[in-house]
Write a structure and sequence with these properties.
91 residues; 3 helices
Length: 91
Amino acid sequence: MGFGFVIAKFQIFLHILVQRPLTNLSLLGGVIMIIMGVATLLYGFYEYIVEEKEIESNEFKPRTLPIIIYTALLTSLAIALVISVYVSSYF
């Protein structure tokens, strides 16, 4: 979530630096990262509850596929944001 705030503030800084009006689209990356931070928090809490129950009942089974999918999603989103910041600062 904090990273999302940093991205949003950096987008504002870039627009002030080049003296262009700020649009809603330029803040979208930061807002998306804030939402992904909240989603990560909720998903982590859900996984904690499920795994705690599995450990107590001696039926623990590690689930790697959801973690791989979520990590790939966050990584691709971060790459898209880097490209967005690069493009918005030069055009």
